[in-house]
Design goal:
The structure is a single chain. The chain has 341 residues and is of the alpha+beta class. The protein has three domains: 3-71; 96-181, Helix Hairpins; 189-338, Histidine kinase-like ATPase, C-terminal domain (Heat Shock Protein 90). The chain has nine helices and seven strands. The chain has helices spanning 2-26, 29-71, 73-79, 87-144, 149-181, 193-210, 231-247, 294-300, 306-316, and strands at residues 189-192, 214-216, 226-229, 254-261, 265-272, 321-326, 330-338. The strands form two sheets. The chain has a five-stranded mixed beta sheet. Strands 1-3 form a two-stranded antiparallel ribbon. Strand 6 and strand 7 form a beta hairpin. Mean pLDDT is 77; it is low at 72-76, 78-83 and 294-299. It catalyses: ATP + protein L-histidine = ADP + protein N-phospho-L-histidine. Keywords: Kinase, Membrane, Phosphoprotein, Transferase, Transmembrane, Transmembrane helix, Two-component regulatory system. Residues 122-341 form the Histidine kinase domain.
Length: 341
C-alpha cells in the first residue's frame, strides 16, 4: 500500500508539471486535462514498474535475507515463508534491531578481549614467579656446589615450596577450566552440612593456629543440617573460603561460620575480622587472579583462583555467593545450598 501511494504521489507531481507546461503553450483547459490524465497514467505505470523492478524487489530480497538470518533456517522452515506488506518499514526496524544487538555483542567481545589480555598477563606472572625462583635456587646450588649442607637444605626447601605453589596453580587452573567447560559432573546426594563444616574446621585448625586465628562454629549448630548437593564440591568451597579468611585475617582474630535456614535453602556465612576489602573491589573479588593487594598476596601465597573456583562450583549447583565487607573490619562471604527434601 505504501508503495502505491509513493508511486501515485510522484506520478501526480510529474503529471501536474506536464499539464502546467501544456497549458502555458496551448492555453487550453481541455488539452491540459487530457495531458494531465495521460501523463498521470503513464507515469504511474512507469514509476511503479521501475520501483518494483529495480528498487522494491531488491529491498524484499534484503529483508528476506535479514529475516532468514535472524530466524535461522530451521525455524524459518517450521514457520513457513514470512510475508510482509511493508518490507521497507520492516527492513528499517530489523536493521535497527540488528545494529542494537550487534553493538551489544561488540561491547561484550571488547570486554572479553580485555579480560583475555588480563588473564594471560596474570597467568604469565603467576607462572613465572615460582619458575624463576626455582631456577634461581638451582643455579645457586650449581654455582656453590654441595659443600655447605645447611645452605643446600635451605635452597632446596625454598625451591620445593615454589614447586608446590606451581603445582597448586596448575591444579587450580585445570579445575576451573573443567568447571567452565562442564566436564566436572555434580554428584548430588543428601548429607549433613554441620558435620561437613566441623570436618573442614578440623582440617584447617593447624593453619589457623599458625596464623593465631580462632575458628568458631557455635554449639547451637550441633544438630544435623541436611542439604542436597555434591559433598566433595561443597567441601572444596568451605576449604577455600576458610583458607581465604585465614590468609587475610589479623593475628589474634577470628573466623566464624554460621548457618541460617531459609525457605528451601540453607545460607552459610564465613565471617572474618581481618583487613577487609575496599568497596570498589567488591564486584571483582570472584574474578580469576584478582587480588586487592598484589604485594601482600605474593607474601601470602595461593593460586589466586580460590574464589573463582568457589563461584563456579556454586553456579554449577545453581546457587549464589555474595560478599559484604568493610575495609579494616573484615569480610563475610555467604552462599546458599538446597535443603534436602
Amino acid at each position: 500500500m505504501k508503495l502505491r501511494g509513493l508511486v501515485l504521489i510522484n506520478a501526480l507531481v510529474v503529471a501536474l508539471a506536464l499539464a502546467i507546461v501544456n497549458y502555458y503553450f496551448q492555453n487550453s483547459w481541455y488539452h491540459t486535462a487530457v495531458t494531465f490524465v495521460i501523463a498521470l497514467v503513464i507515469c504511474y505505470v512507469v514509476f511503479y514498474y521501475l520501483i518494483e523492478r529495480f528498487v522494491y524487489s531488491k529491498i524484499k530480497l534484503i529483508y528476506k535475507l535479514i529475516h532468514n538470518l535472524k530466524l535461522g533456517q530451521e525455524l524459518k522452515d517450521a514457520l513457513g515463508e514470512y510475508v510482509t506488506d511493508d518490507p521497507i518499514n520492516d527492513v528499517e526496524t530489523e536493521v535497527k534491531e540488528w545494529a542494537r544487538v550487534k553493538k551489544i555483542e561488540i561491547d561484550e567481545l571488547k570486554k572479553q578481549e580485555q579480560f583475555r589480555k588480563e588473564f594471560l598477563g596474570n597467568i604469565s606472572h603467576e607462572l613465572k614467579t615460582p619458575l624463576f625462583a626455582v631456577q634461581g635456587y638451582i643455579e645457586a646450588l650449581q654455582d656453590e656446589g654441595l659443600e655447605d649442607n645447611e645452605m643446600n637444605r635451605s635452597f632446596l626447601s625454598k625451591a620445593s615450596k615454589n614447586i608446590d605453589r606451581l603445582s597448586l596453580l596448575i591444579k587450580d587452573i585445570d579445575a576451573i577450566s573443567k568447571l567452565e567447560s562442564g566436564e566436572i559432573q555434580i554428584n548430588y546426594k543428601k548429607f549433613d552440612l554441620s558435620a561437613l563444616i566441623k570436618e573442614v574446621l578440623e582440617q584447617m585448625e593447624f593453619k589457623a593456629n599458625k596464623h593465631n586465628i580462632h575458628l568458631i562454629f557455635k554449639e547451637k549448630y550441633n544438630f544435623p543440617t541436611w542439604v542436597y548437593a555434591d559433598r566433595d564440591k561443597i567441601h572444596q568451597v568451605l576449604i577455600n573460603l576458610v583458607s581465604n579468611s585465614i590468609k587475610y585475617g589479623k593475628a589474634g582474630g577470628t573466623t566464624s561460620l554460621k548457618i541460617f535456614e531459609l525457605h528451601d535453602q540453607i545460607l552459610v556465612e564465613v565471617t572474618d575480622d581481618g583487613i577487609g576489602i575496599e568497596e570498589k573491589h567488591l564486584p571483582r573479588v570472584f574474578e580469576r587472579f584478582f587480588r586487592t593487594d598484589k604485594s601482600r598476596s605474593r607474601q601470602i601465597g595461593g593460586s589466586g583462583l580460590g574464589l573463582a573456583i568457589v563461584k563456579h562450583i556454586l553456579e554449577a549447583h545453581q546457587q549464589t555467593i555474595t560478599v559484604r565487607s568493610t575495609e579494616g573490619l573484615g569480610s563475610t562471604f555467604a552462599f546458599t545450598i538446597s535443603k534436602a527434601k
